[in-house]
TrEMBL record, chains A, B:
InterPro entries: Fumarylacetoacetase, Fumarylacetoacetase-like_C, Fumarylacetoacetase_N. Residues 22-113 form the Fumarylacetoacetase N-terminal domain. Its EC number is 3.7.1.2. The keyword Magnesium applies. It is an enzyme of class 3 (hydrolase). Its cofactor is Mg(2+); Ca(2+). Pathway: Amino-acid degradation; L-phenylalanine degradation; acetoacetate and fumarate from L-phenylalanine: step 6/6. It comes from Maritimibacter dapengensis. The gene is fahA. This is fumarylacetoacetase. One of its GO terms (molecular function) is fumarylacetoacetase activity. It comes from the Bacteria.
Amino acid sequence: MTDLKRSWVDSANSADTPFPLNNLPYGVFSTGGEPRCGTAIGDQILDLAAMEADGEIDAGGTLQTGSWNAFMAQGNKAWAAFRDTLTERLAEDGDESLSKYLVPQTDATLHMPFTVSEYTDFYAGKHHAFNVGTMFRGPENALPPNWLHIPIGYNGRASSVVLSGTDVIRPNGQLKGPDDEMPRFGPSQRFDIELEMGAIVGTASNGPISVAEAFENIFGYVLLNDWSARDIQAWEYQPLGPFQAKATATTISPWIVTAAALEPFRTSTPEREKPLLDYLKEPGPMLYDIDLEVTMAPDGGAETTITRTNYNVMYYSAAQQLAHHTTSGCPMRVGDLLGSGTISGETKESRGSLLELSWGGKEPVELANGETRTFIQDGDTLTLKGAAHGDGYQIGFGDCVGRLKPAREV
Amino acid sequence: MTDLKRSWVDSANSADTPFPLNNLPYGVFSTGGEPRCGTAIGDQILDLAAMEADGEIDAGGTLQTGSWNAFMAQGNKAWAAFRDTLTERLAEDGDESLSKYLVPQTDATLHMPFTVSEYTDFYAGKHHAFNVGTMFRGPENALPPNWLHIPIGYNGRASSVVLSGTDVIRPNGQLKGPDDEMPRFGPSQRFDIELEMGAIVGTASNGPISVAEAFENIFGYVLLNDWSARDIQAWEYQPLGPFQAKATATTISPWIVTAAALEPFRTSTPEREKPLLDYLKEPGPMLYDIDLEVTMAPDGGAETTITRTNYNVMYYSAAQQLAHHTTSGCPMRVGDLLGSGTISGETKESRGSLLELSWGGKEPVELANGETRTFIQDGDTLTLKGAAHGDGYQIGFGDCVGRLKPAREV
């Protein structure tokens, strides 16, 4: 575990800042004009687009695009060189003349940091799969037979990925209770969160790649909330999987935390009950130790932490998922986003969805103001938070926030 | 049913040409240089990009992009006006001076006519769903309970959509027979076609839209072959649907046949066994009468027609599918591609996949050269063909062709 790297930006030297020099996450911000590429440092944003325009730094012109896709497409040698330069110039003995490129985060509006090419969501949390499977099929048949062999995933909808802070509208959809003769169309009554990490593909591939190659192709990570309508899903998902239940919105945190920044926090996936096929074996630790939590705040009320868990509980890493994704020859593109699957720990307090926390609605979750919840109510704000904790510093992600608005009139 | 519209381009006046003046499908072609937007007329392509560059026609500059997305984004009033102008100028008493913009189709290479934003595949053929369900669950439980109520669909992989003529490589993947204790990794042994139509979204939407609005938002149609690895699918698809089984390739025909050209061929979806929910009811006929067939040719051998069917057998129209797609609030974008689902008729000879034609591999299909097939062999070429037949003319799609190459070494 490395120590805090000190910067001439004072606010970056606190143990509490999510954005010390060790982090340098990439985002897109504006202060009235066009969205610009920048990096967070302490409580400031360094305006990288302006620096590149002034010839202060060179990223091949990619920082002028208002998105990190073109930068990513330069490949991981360019990523490393750029990060080295930034680290050097922002270090305590670096180049304080760059202070003219600092913008206080409180003055900036954040935008989507990259264009999502396609979005794939996985189901790689074993406790989550076991919990959900137990509710639907009993503990003996909880895990599907393929689950220990395949990082199960489905294609999601890229057009529905939104930035933290975007309101989410409760979806309408087809609903049918087990005793109803016919479905009806109306607002989802079991609208839920899924606490996930999102991995961003930074290097394209056109054919099968190994887990080691996949690891190199991942540019960075965001927090990801895959909003899910459990009742719509229950009626629609057989036989071809979730569709409209998962298409309302998927919220991501605003800063891309690079794989480079997370390097000190690599950890291994757990021991296997069944041997993995060779193509899925990891040559080294490719998961990360990242503390995660979710808070819920009712309309106008204080927030309550409803779960605390860690990314390190996942059964498959993003590298394994990406390698599996290419087995069929499926081309992957810069900007592809891979959701980890819901991250639930072993205990009740570490479950990553309300479906699990309230055990299918049977055990309501208590909030600080005395209210209870099974699923999300209109006006509730859900916030995902995450940070990898080093020695005297942390690598934070910035919050991943969404507030639920009432459904549209049917 | 309208009659043949006669053109000063002689080859467009034959009853046999797929591209009479009534059609005017949009494609992208090249003759050595950059890909250019054009329309097929008889055995020629009219170079619309060159015409626009010369000021001969105005499409807001969109024809200079080597793709039809920007043109589509102008909206359906612009589509209609542009088609009217083209029809007038190519008519028998039109503007023969445009002949300098004609390029023989035999001299041109065709390219993807549009950029696929996202790809969704449906399962809206009742005979197909019934056949497949019967094989897996018996005739009593063949149709899933939701099938008569929901146009069942899943998100596919846009990056895997390829143009007709692109070779397809047999995928590797996880395979597990019912009696195997463990899965193994290797080439799919049950690689198949799916005969489908693809509908192209030409107008974006950001929230739920009606079936009538959805119909107006569809720009045109292509033939679509959703190559499918049945054995990979069987092992992976529970509980989240097909993933790598459908990610190798989806081939589309090269010309976008507009909804306007298909207008005379509108037909109704069938009577309903169960009443549809209001949001899925069609205000008029929104399906089309399009004759379809598939041929198979072994390596170096002649082609055999292995099925003949019609798009008019589908249970849900593309407009119904698109409307359903938006119920959750899912944003749709210009260039979204919706696969109809496999188009199988009632009879054995009209089934749209080898899975059905060979009844799960038990009843091999006979080819003209005496060989038989259950699934596709390396070197086989599969071709989808389609045309709507009017009085003395047809609206053809151009062939949708793919040849299967051997799997990569594992």
